[in-house]
Each structure stands twice: as C-alpha cells, then as structure tokens.
Amino acid sequence: MSIEQKPIQSNFSFSRVLSVVLLVVAVVGLFIFVFPKKDSFDQLKADLTQKETQLNKVKSELSRLQSVKDSFSGGEVTQNDVLNLIPEDLEQGEIIRTLAKYSEENEATINSLSFGVSNNKGGNYSVLSITTNVSGTHKNLINFLKALEKDGRKFSVNTMGVQVLENGLENMSLNIGAYYL
C-alpha cells in the first residue's frame, strides 16, 4: 500500500502570486496616495516652523514690553501712558527738529547740542542722552522746559544749570534723556 500525497505546489504558487500582487498594489498605492501628499506635508511643516518662529519673536517682544512696563512705577502718568510715549526707534533727527521747534516757539536759542546713547540697567529700553546749552530770557527758558514736558515723546531733564548773563539773559545747560525701545 502506498500513500499518495497531493502536490502542495499549486497552493504555494497561488500564495506567492497573491503576495506579489499585494506587494505591487501596496507600492502603486504609495505612488498614487502617499508620495503626492509628501510635498504638501513638507510645505505645511515648513509653514508651521515659520509660524512658530514668528510666534517666538512676538512672545519675546511682548515679554520685553512687559518688562519695560514693570520697570516704570506709577505717578501722575499711568504706565501705559509712559509706554505710549517711548518710540521704538532712536529718531535722532526728529528729536533735533523737536528741540529746534520748541526753542523757536519760545524765543530761546540753542547754542550747542551733543548726544550719547546708553541702555538702562535692565536693558529694556535705551536713552539718548542730550546735552544742550540754551539761552534766552528766564520766561522763555521756562516755556522751553514746559514744552518739553508736554511733548508726546518721553523726555526727562536729568541735570540743569542756569547762568545769568550781564545782558539780562540766562544761559541754561541741560542734560536731557530721550527714551526709546
């Protein structure tokens, strides 16, 4: 008696063909569905990175402005008023025009101007230090100082020296701080 075995090869070749077909379908699916989306995914990823960078810059600026706000104590003017008076740029030419305008309006003469830049201790804002010599009548010099006080920009008079001249005029030396971020 002999036992006859059926060939298993037909099932084996069917599963081999089925495996190859499924592999081909998977590869074709990759090319049709996945790879075209890769470029748009990469673009979205780059956009996200750019937006995160912008967000970090805005957060940094907000933090810097908050620290400037915290460094000013209240008084007659609110902290927000002070922040609105501090421009972001130095604008030295604008400061010169402002000083010239106030001296002309108040019939005072600017004899000299010199500038120097310094940061505050916390590094949140900078100060343009202005040393100037202004001459005129006592009333004109007081009006010049009042005009600086009322200006839309944040100025502070740090030191002042007054000299009375023989002709009835006064010579005033000022050290003024003009703030900017």
Topology:
Blueprint: H1 9-71, H2 79-85, H3 92-105, E1 109-119, E2 126-136, H4 138-150, E3 155-164, E4 170-180
Antiparallel strand pairs: 1-2, 2-4, 3-4
Give the strand order of the largest sheet, numbering strands 1, 2, ... along the chain.
1-2-4-3
Average pLDDT number? 76
Helix content: 40-55%
Helix vs. strand class: alpha+beta
Total domain count: 2
C-alpha geometry: rod-shaped
CATH fold label of the largest domain: Alpha-Beta Plaits
List the total number of helices: 4
State the distance separating the first and last CA atoms: 104 Å
Structure explained in plain terms:
By secondary structure, this protein is α+β, with helices and mostly antiparallel strands. It folds into 2 domains: 9-71; 82-180, 2-Layer Sandwich (Alpha-Beta Plaits), CATH 3.30.70.60. It has 4 helices and 4 strands, in the order αααββαββ. The chain has helices at residues 9-71, 79-85, 92-105, 138-150; strands spanning 109-119, 126-136, 155-164, 170-180. The protein has a 4-stranded antiparallel beta sheet with strand order 1-2-4-3. Helix 1 crosses helix 2. The chain is rod-shaped and about 140 Å long. The model is unreliable at 81-87 (pLDDT under 50).
Structure described in brief:
The protein is α+β, with helices and mostly antiparallel strands and 181 residues long.
Key phrases:
single chain, alpha+beta, 4 helices, rod-shaped, Alpha-Beta Plaits, 24% strand, 181 residues
